[in-house]
């Protein structure tokens, strides 16, 4: 037996386990998505693409897709802008920079479920800290129903997500900033660039690869958002905060529609896949300096 | 073009004084070099002149104007960095055009100037490339081009040749000298390499621990080092230094008495401890022992091509002399030699300051 065959043979168990634990369930979900399977009525039959046809005509699906897209676009944009600002601020050394950095990490370090519960209380219409502040400062005259209002609720979720994941963007961008040699800034200054020109013509282009990586990670994460919303609002009021993941979860495990739920999961997967491919095309065009 | 004048210039980082009380005038159109060992403060000095760092005290004048409060871009200087500091995301053309673009020069003029500078440096065919596709020497040329394109008041160069291999370094050294002859812009050059300083400069200043040890033309400094530090820093191989005594117009090294020319004998009858310096080329190797020769013991030889450096010991000192390229001898062999006594440089044993004028 040649060493090459031996090598293949040795990798086989690992491949087997991976196949069983990762590929298996994915294919099984795909298989389920072609079935009409309702546990409560004991129905289980192959229906081909019918579930997909239903999904395309399901207003709740479109609403949740829209919610997800809106949530993703707004939160990721805010996180990148804020993260960049923070990265630029903590680039220069100042007294207590270590403490600021450590403090920045706190939101990122807290488990999402815990911070969602925390924010839920802060948003509480009667006893919440946020309404307390707003009323005291006189910015509003009556308490806001943060989690019960149709337009406010999704934005409340976005605010919490921004609070929680801005540190991630800030840290990645701050690491990338540190790799830009000091000489380049000095050269740009001598060449006549002011602060804004240095940022636009030097810092920003050199951060592009890092920015794309942050964008990719954050978009994929935000698109699959589940725990934050599920704990904070449970998808309500009137499904205005229901994202694809929440809708899928409810369909699968609260109404036990295994077939249609799997279809929704596959559709979510397809959305994520397409976004990643688009980003990766951009990333591949980036060159290493 | 400008005259650069430093007045009582001082720079401290916290409690550490990096530069103290510098006074110096660099003339218009001059090629002036700051040379010194690493950590002596020469790069800091360049940053102060560029405006990249702030002086703790003192003034910097460009002609009659005090430039201390001006940011780099208002000082009209151009700088070449040791690392070249080319913008990695821009092409060679855009790199060279950058300073002009920052000054809102019309596009047609930018194109013409970039073309002109590229022609001058022989890098026309590289204009479309990115810095990472260039060799070290090519990057150096682009960095020079970016500095030249604007015709600044003052040119600053911070160890621009240090990252190049030996051969390219010589080539670029010639190139820099040629460019300065063609465009006699006031140039301030910083290096740790004394041979670079000697070959390039109109005048130079040797910096040691934040102060100017000596300032003058390369010839002046080579012929009459102001103190022991300069004596040992300038010249390859470095000057030989021997502990000696001045007595009755003679230089006493151990039991040897060497006659000295008039200038060095400070008051007959006085004895004084001195350090006697003699350059390797001022030690003559003799073919055999004869009257008046001293005899040392060969340690090793270093052939450098046109000559051989002979290291030998004599009365507890290690001396270096230069011999013709065909010099052959085995370690341990006798080395008969003679000092050209009138070429001795004498330094005060305690202060290290030079005694007497430059030798003839």
Shape of chain B: globular
Rg measurement of chain A, Å = 24 Å
Give start-end ranges of low-pLDDT stretches of chain B: none
Query: How do the strands line up in the largest sheet of chain A?
Result: 1-2
* Class by alpha and beta content of chain A: mainly alpha
Total domain modules of chain A: 1
Q: Give the count of helical stretches of chain A.
A: 12
Look at the structure and give the mean pLDDT of chain A: 90
What's the SSE pattern of chain B?
EEEHEEEHHHEHEHEEHHEEEEEEEEEEE
Task: Give the CATH H-level superfamily of chain A.
Answer: MetI-like
A few lines on this structure:
By secondary structure, chain A is mainly alpha-helical. Helices cover 74% and strands 3% of the residues of chain A. In chain A, strand 1 and strand 2 (43-46) form a beta hairpin.
Tell me what you see in this structure.
The complex is a heterodimer of chains A (289) and B (360). Chain A is mainly alpha-helical. Chain A has one domain: MetI-like fold (Orthogonal Bundle). Chain A is built from twelve helices and two strands. Chain A has helices at residues 3-33, 50-56, 59-89, 97-109, 112-123, 129-137, 152-178, 182-190, 195-223, 227-232, 244-254, 258-285; strands at residues 35-38, 43-46. In chain A, strands 1-2 form a two-stranded antiparallel ribbon. In chain A, β1 and β2 form a beta hairpin. In chain A, α4 packs across α7, α7 crosses α9 and α9 (195-223) runs antiparallel to α12 (258-285). Chain A is globular and about 75 Å long. The mean pLDDT of chain A is 90. Chain B is an alpha+beta fold and 360 residues long. In chain B, 23% of the residues lie in helices and 34% in strands. Chain B is globular. In chain B, the strands form four sheets. In chain B, strands 6-7-8-3-9-10 form a six-stranded mixed beta sheet, with helices on both faces. Chain B has a six-stranded antiparallel beta sheet with strand order 13-12-11-14-20-21. A five-stranded antiparallel beta sheet of chain B has the order 15-19-16-17-18, with no helix packed on it. The model of chain B has no long low-confidence stretch (mean pLDDT 90). Chain B is built from eight helices and 21 strands. In chain B, α2 (92-102) packs parallel to α4 and α3 (107-121) crosses α4 (136-148). Chain B: One of its GO terms (molecular function) is ATP binding. Chain B: InterPro entries: AAA+_ATPase, ABC_transporter-like_ATP-bd, ABC_transporter-like_CS, ABC_transpr_MalK-like, ABC_transpr_MalK/UgpC-like, Mo/tungstate-bd_C_term_dom, NA-bd_OB-fold, OB_MalK-like.
